[in-house]
Amino acid sequence: MPTPALPPADRAIQPQEGVSRLLFIWEVERRIGLRHLAILARLNPGSKHYDPSFPAPARRETMHEASCRRHETLRWHACDIDTWVRNRSARSNR
Description:
Helix content is about 35%, strand content about 20%. It is an alpha+beta fold. The chain has one domain. The longest helix is centred in the last third of the chain and has 15 residues.
């Protein structure tokens, strides 16, 4: 039985149309120019840097490291972050 052909490498990494890619926090840092703790402060209603317009994480994953410590990984939809950046720059241009 023949094996199915694989898609070309450049198509294999493209997200499906209409589906936003999930970003790790380090990718969000690069896109918006804020560090990890500044991003978390925008999510925390108790922080003076809280921003209710900042997108909530789309996914929270509990990961286990090799040392058996648990930590939470936050992921955001790329389209939500891009929209927030556009809206933020539009507000600053007023």
